[in-house]
Amino acid sequence: MDALNQTRVTEFVFLGLTDNWVLEILFFMAFSVTYMLTLLGNSLIVLTTVFTPRLHTPMYFFLSNLSFIDICHSSVTVPKMLEGFVLERKTISFDNCIAQLFFLHLFACAEIFLLTVMAYDRYVAICAPLHYPQVMNMRVCVHLVFALWLGGTVHSLVQTYLTIRLPYCGPNIIDSYFCDVPPVIKLACTDTYLTGMLIVFNSGTISLTCFLALVTSYTVILVSLRKQSAEGRRKALSTCSAHFMVVALFFGPCIFLYTRPDSSFSTDKVVSVFYTVITPLLNPLIYTLRNEEVKSAMKQLTQRRVFS
């Protein structure tokens, strides 16, 4: 509480992605379109899953949750980034900055856990198909989703606490376009080495552990596919390759950003754009373009809504 009472900074100033006004206009147009497509694509997956009874299975239940998380994840950072492109002075209040980094880590951690759960779901479906209905029934799936949100909340509370317990007396300039723990704690008026190491340990352990669990799951799946029929191998590889593409696109930037105690923010900004803006758009494209069942359900849902 004493540390909080010493806080004198009331707002932070973002440097943004660039100070070139021509690039800012181009970025504003490009990222506005990207954000709208992200909302549209992920919302369509959620609605398709909810209103199509044959998609009421664990795999599509998890997929709809992934789309919901992607909507939330991109909405934490992108609107503020777009606002910064049209404002000369890019500011955010201290409280809103803390709220932004809290929800950023909440949704990012929830997505990490969800991707791990999805890998486990595919492992059971392919390697133990006879036990799949008992192991992955909808009650278990709901409990798993509740657990991943709880885990994400605990992780985010830890990150937020480690950030707000530090005194901030200035400077208040963040070399980024959103509030995240590493650039914010750099502005603290005290030695942050131990705090930085705790933050890296927290985020890095989660990212690396889940990534290794994912790689192990998919390795076991690939080995077990030798016993499958040609058609079974094709379907399994199609589904698993889509999952692994999403894993690589999400975990790559996470591991790069959160497993290093010292960061180069100019490089981190480029990686962060991919992680917060591009990946949430690519996820629905990967799943819909490679999944005939989802595309068919979307087409039927659209036709039903149009003709009704």
UniProtKB/TrEMBL annotation:
Organism: Oryctolagus cuniculus (Rabbit)
Location(s) in or outside the cell: Cell membrane; Membrane
Principal subcellular localization: membrane
Regions that span the bilayer: 25-47, 59-78, 98-120, 140-158, 206-225, 237-258, 270-289
InterPro entries assigned: GPCR_Rhodpsn, GPCR_Rhodpsn_7TM, Olfact_rcpt, Olfactory_Receptors
Lineage: Eukaryota, Metazoa, Chordata, Craniata, Vertebrata
Signal sequence segment: none
Name of the featured protein: Olfactory receptor
Keyword match Heme: no
SMART domains reported in the protein's UniProt record: 7TM_GPCR_Srsx (SM01381)
Pfam families: 7tm_4
The UniProt record lists the keyword Manganese: no
PANTHER family per UniProt: OLFACTORY RECEPTOR
Domain G-protein coupled receptors family 1 profile residue range list: 41-287
Protein keywords: Cell membrane, G-protein coupled receptor, Membrane, Olfaction, Receptor, Sensory transduction, Transducer, Transmembrane, Transmembrane helix
Annotated family: Belongs to the G-protein coupled receptor 1 family.
A GO term, aspect molecular function: copper ion binding
Gene Ontology CC entries for this record: plasma membrane
Topology versus the membrane: Multi-pass membrane protein
